[in-house]
Amino acid sequence: MHKSESAAQPSPARSASQAIARRYRTRRLRYALWLGILVLGLILGASVARHWFGNEALRQYDVLKSQTQAQLNQVRAQLAAARAQNDALQGQLMVEESTRRGLVTSLADAQAELGQLHEQLAFFDQLLPPGPKGAVSIRALEIEHVGPILQYKVLLMRNAQEDVPFSGRMQFVAKGLRQGKPATVTLDPVRLPGNEPAEAAPATLALGFDQFQRGAGVLGIPPDFTPQTVTLNVLEGDTLRVSRTVNLPAAD
């Protein structure tokens, strides 16, 4: 009986071997479990990292795109401003060129007119040679009786190309009838509507020139006076330099 019981129970060595085998299998299962967890963690980590890096790259791309678009807009604005400035400069250049051409034309016209005046002066010198050097002459004088006024035009010349300018004044003296009696009247310039003020009118009789001077104006006639002749006196100070008399036609 004891012999059969000892045969049914395992030996201590066999039990130890089985225990070791069970512990080995348990350890392998544990290692496999941890390995699976590690692999799963790596997969999940890679997925999360991929998702995070993808979002970060997308965010950086959006930021870079926004910055690039802003720079592009700034460059476009600068280009538009440069074009506008260029257009403005082109317009200003055209205006300045037009002004320059106008000034050149005006200068050419003035030079042409000056040349004509010199030719006329030379022509007058040939027709009526001036007197001694410095002498003033009345080359032309027209006086017209128009209602209550006299209109005059005069051309004075002087042979003094290198002398000091002549400075003097004109005096108009009229002879005629006042209340049926002979009378002499010194005529003064008057102001017509739209002309210079009366207080400035006497200055029109002042003279100052080197070679020639043209003048024109209006003289007043006293209401009770009928002029028959008008004498133009050219005075230097109180000294008479030259004079000329014009006969007026009888009033209608």
Explain the overall architecture:
- It holds the Pfam family DUF6776.
- Residues 65-92 form a coiled coil.
- It contains two helices and eight strands.
- By secondary structure, the chain is α+β, with helices and mostly antiparallel strands.
- The chain has two domains: 1-127; 131-247, Immunoglobulin-like, CATH 2.60.40.
- Strands 3, 4, 5, 7 and 8 form a five-stranded antiparallel beta sheet that branches. Strands 1-2-6 form a three-stranded antiparallel beta sheet, with no helix packed on it.
- The model is unreliable at 1-7 and 197-203 (pLDDT under 50).
Task: Describe the sheet with the most strands.
Answer: 5 strands, antiparallel
Give, in order, the helices and strands. HHEEEEEEEE
Indicate the radius of gyration in whole angstroms: 60 Å
Enumerate the spans where pLDDT stays under 50 for 5 or more consecutive residues: 1-7, 197-203
Percentage of helical residues?
40-55%
Q: Give me the oligomer status.
A: single chain
Total helical elements: 2
* Main structural class: alpha+beta
Q: Determine the strand fraction and express it as a percent band.
A: 25-35%
Distance between the termini: 192 Å
- The dominant shape is rod-shaped
User: Count the strands?
Assistant: 8
Q: Average pLDDT value?
A: 82
Q: Give the count of structural domains.
A: 2
Keywords: Coiled coil, Membrane, Transmembrane, Transmembrane helix
Transmembrane segments: 31-53
Coiled coil: 65-92
Pfam families: DUF6776
